[in-house]
Design goal:
Elements (H helix, E strand, L loop, with lengths): L1 E3 L3 H13 L6 E3 L7 H9 L4 E2 L4 H4 L7 H7 L5 H9 L5 E3 L4 E4 L4 H14 L3 E3 L6 E5 L2 E6 L2 E5 L2 E3 L11 H4 L5 E6 L3 E3 L12 E9 L5 E8 L3 E3 L1 H9 L1 H6 L3 E7 L6 H14 L15 H10 L12 H14 E6 L1 E2 L7 E5 L4 E2 L4 E2 L5 E3 L13 H16 L2
Parallel strand pairs: 1-2, 1-10, 2-6, 10-22
Antiparallel strand pairs: 3-5, 4-5, 7-8, 8-9, 11-19, 12-15, 12-18, 13-14, 13-16, 14-15, 16-17, 20-21
Length: 400
C-alpha cells in the first residue's frame, strides 16, 4: 500500500498500518526531500504534540470545521492515546499552563526521531522526491503516476496535507471527490499603519480580540509583532473566522480588551481604588495591571494623558479615556501573515465524502484520507497534530 505524504498524518498512518497488518508492504511517497517538516518547525521548534484535554466531547470543541466528525474519531484514538503512544516509546510529554503538551526535551527533533525510528523498526519504505502527479483507480487497485513512471498499489492513504489553492486538490477532484475551496485558517494580523508594532516582542497573558461587524471574539495570550499582532487570541480568531475574514479581504478593524474578561464597572472600581490608594504617584510610576511597562506607557500616551500626571489628578474625563482604551482599543488590520512551514488551511476534501469510522472514501473504495487534506482544522494548541494522529491511526488500522 502507498501513503501519499511524509508528514505527521502520513507517518502515523504508515506506522498504524504496519502495526495492524505486519505482513503488508507500506511505502511513504513524499514529494519533497524532507520528512516531517511541519513537525520539526512547529511550536517554535518544540513541537506542540497534542493538548491535555482528555474528554472527547470537550476536545472536539476546538475544531472550527469537522468537530462532529472528529468527535466520533476520538472514540478510536484521542489525546490520551497519543500521550500513551509516545510514552510507550520512551518519549515523555509535559503539560504547560495553557494545557499544550510538548516533549520534556523541548525539542521537536525528539518527536521526529521517535517517528523515524519506529518506521525503521517496522520496515516502512520511504521514497523521497516522489510527487504523485495523478491517481487512477483500476481493477488491480490504484495506478499512481510518479515522475519516474507508474506504480500500482492495492490500497492508498492520502495524507498530502493542505493546499493554498483549489488546484492542489484537482487530482482528488478527478476521482469524484467534492473539494471545499481552501483558505488560510491560522494567521496573524498585519497592521502596517499602527504604531504599536514598535513594541514587538511584548505580550499580555490574557486579552480579548473582537472583529468589528462580526460575532467573532476570542481570548488568550496576545503577542505584539513587527507586523502587527499574533498569539493565541489572534490565531484562534483567525481560525474561527477563516472564511469570514477571507470574504472581508483581510481588511477589517479589531477591538482589543487588554484586560481579558474585565467589564466596565469592574474596571471603574479598580481605577477608583488606584486613585484613592496611589493618588500621589504618576501614571508612569504605577502600572496597576499585569501588562509590560512599555505597553502601559504606550497606551497612556495613546489617549493623550501625560505620563507625569498624578493618579489623583486623573478626573472623570481621564478615567473614561483609560477605561475606553483598556476595554475597547481599536486597530486597523490590513492583510495577514502565514508561516509557510506551519501553514494550516480550512477546506479540502469534503467530510461528506469520508467514512470517519475507517477514513475510507465513500466515493472511491480502497482510498483513505488522513490529516489536513480533509476539510477539518483546529485552533492553535496542538489540535491539528491531534487530528493528524487520530485520522492517521484510523486509516492505517482500517486499510487492510
Amino acid at each position: 500500500m502507498a501513503i501519499i505524504g511524509g508528514g505527521a498524518a502520513g507517518f502515523f498512518a504508515a506506522l498504524s498500518a504496519k502495526k495492524h497488518f505486519p505482513k503488508s508492504e507500506v511505502t511513504i511517497l513524499e514529494k519533497s526531500t524532507k520528512l516531517l517538516a511541519k513537525v520539526k518547525v512547529s511550536g517554535g521548534g518544540r513541537c506542540n504534540v497534542t493538548h491535555a484535554c482528555f474528554q472527547n466531547s470537550e476536545l472536539a470543541k476546538f475544531y472550527p470545521r469537522g468537530s462532529k466528525q472528529i468527535r466520533k474519531a476520538f472514540d478510536q484514538f484521542n489525546s490520551e492515546d497519543t500521550v500513551n503512544w509516545f510514552e510507550a516509546r520512551r518519549v515523555a510529554l509535559k503539560t504547560e499552563s495553557d494545557n499544550r503538551m510538548f516533549p520534556t526535551t523541548d525539542d521537536s527533533q525528539t518527536i521526529v526521531d521517535c517517528l523515524m525510528s519506529e518506521a525503521r523498526k517496522l520496515n516502512v519504505h520511504i521514497s523521497l522526491s516522489s510527487p504523485v502527479i495523478k491517481i487512477k483507480s483500476s481493477s488491480s487497485g490504484f495506478e499512481l503516476t510518479l515522475k519516474n513512471g507508474i506504480e500500482v498499489f492495492d490500497k492508498v492513504i492520502v495524507a498530502s496535507g493542505g493546499s493554498p489553492k483549489e488546484e492542489g486538490f484537482l487530482w482528488l477532484k478527478e476521482l469524484g471527490h467534492d473539494i471545499i475551496p481552501p483558505v488560510p485558517s491560522l494567521f496573524t494580523f498585519n497592521m502596517p499603519k499602527e504604531s504599536i508594532k514598535s513594541l514587538m516582542g511584548l505580550s499580555v497573558t490574557n486579552a480579548s480580540v473582537r472583529v468589528q461587524s462580526t460575532k467573532l471574539i476570542q481570548s488568550g495570550p496576545l503577542l505584539i509583532t513587527h507586523w502587527g499582532m499574533s498569539g493565541p487570541a489572534v490565531l484562534k480568531t483567525s481560525a474561527w473566522g477563516a472564511r469570514v475574514l477571507n470574504d472581508m479581504g483581510y481588511q477589517f478593524n479589531i477591538h482589543v480588551n487588554w484586560l481579558g474578561q474585565v467589564k466596565e464597572q469592574e474596571l471603574r472600581d479598580i481605577l477608583q481604588d488606584v486613585m484613592n490608594s496611589f493618588g500621589k504617584r504618576m501614571l508612569r510610576n504605577h502600572n496597576p495591571f499585569e501588562m509590560p511597562q512599555r505597553l502601559w506607557e504606550h497606551l497612556v500616551h495613546k489617549v493623550d494623558l501625560p505620563l507625569e500626571k498624578l493618579w489623583s489628578e486623573l478626573g472623570k474625563k481621564g478615567v473614561n479615556k483609560l477605561l475606553n482604551l483598556l476595554l475597547n482599543d481599536q486597530y486597523t488590520v490590513s492583510g495577514k501573515t502565514t508561516f509557510k512551514e506551519e501553514f494550516v488551511t480550512c477546506g479540502g476534501v469534503s467530510l461528506a465524502n469520508v467514512d470517519f469510522k475507517t477514513m475510507e472514501s465513500r466515493v472511491c473504495p480502497g482510498l483513505y484520507f488522513a490529516g489536513e487534506v480533509l476539510d477539518i482544522d483546529g485552533v492553535t494548541g496542538g489540535f491539528n497534530f491531534q487530528a493528524a494522529w487520530t485520522t492517521g491511526f484510523i486509516a492505517g488500522k482500517s486499510v487492510g
